[in-house]
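Hey, I'm writing a tutorial for new members on how sequence and structure tokens pair up, and I'd like a real worked example in the thread rather than a made-up one. If someone can provide the structure for the chain below, I'll link this post from the tutorial.
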Amino acid sequence: MTFLAASTFPPSVKMLIPHMGAGDNYRGVWFNGGIPPAEGRAAWHLLPIAAGVVPPQTTVDVIGYDEKLAALMEDFYVEALSHPTLDTWWTSRITLAPDHQAMAKAGLAILFSDGWQDYFLWPMQRVYRDFAPHAGSRARLIIGPWSHASNDGVLPYTYQEFAVLWCDRFLKGVNNGVDKLPKVLIYVQGPNQWRFEKDWPIPDARATRLYMHSVKSGTSSSANDGTLSVAAPTTGDAPATQAYIPAATATSGNGGAQPSGDQSAQETFASLTWTTAPLSSPTEVTGPIIVNFWASADATDTDFVVQITDVSSNETGTTSTDVTRAWLRGSHRTSDSNPTPLVPGTPYLFSIEVWPTSYVFQPGHRIRLAIYGQDVPGRIPDANPAVRTFYQDAAHPSYVELPVIGTATLP
């Protein structure tokens, strides 16, 4: 709502401090990769919209307010689901790259902030990436170790102090130096430290590809137990096959940015996995992650849920900890406005931008890619079974591209 209001350029608005919000609510909140949300996942996102239509509570007229609000939220949810593509219904209710660029060129100053575990992380940092190149010193981004609605523990200033400095600089004209600080402040998970960066994505990150292979890693009970390696695939690398069957039980977290708990059971039950050899040194991955893979299906559409996990082992067993994830409906592979059905049996190159992270994988740990067919209960599962084939040979190189910080060498 903040960006949508700002896109009308009210003359009194000079700067913004949006905390955990979205511009592109279609891709970033509702239809991640074209996959619709379950009602419980989506309902609270409607609250600002609904509250703007239903009269606010007063001491005179509170009877029935909650019931009206709930009914309106339900109606909006049903209406939103009736627009599964990025059509004019959506574009009139969200902001996209041209809007964000126009805000920068109009002179707005924006202090963005979000958290690694927040549902709004992907769309918030996308607005920054649209806005910052055109804003000079009027853009700053803070990403903390937070889930939704948190902002505690920021260093070297508290979040509130940073916000006051921003207001003083761009509303009062106080030369307090906040616009001279590096553009980005992030919390690195693992060492659990705050760090300034020149920009986002981090300019000196090394794009490092880990290719998918059919060789068994010996670390997972998934259907294929493949490996990830910097070595390019060979001509004879066999494909991996996955039979997707819709299930009512949770098969990939909770539909949010980062589910909690060990993911090993879900991986065994419903995913294909590819896992590296043990890492030889601490390996920091900070920034957006890209997964490019070749796949076909025996259906005209199918959903892909990709997950990056941190695999560690000790005397009690192996744990697979979720780091980040992303979603894609096959028909939305090239366009959210004009989805194109799959031709059964035809291999396609699918490219997914995984939600960004800043995470240090420790020595002896492994990096794992898991691919599911659904994300329940957070997202409405595809009701149609499908057999999916994932190609990983020299003619169809499939890989994860990680933004590696520093000099760590991947296996």
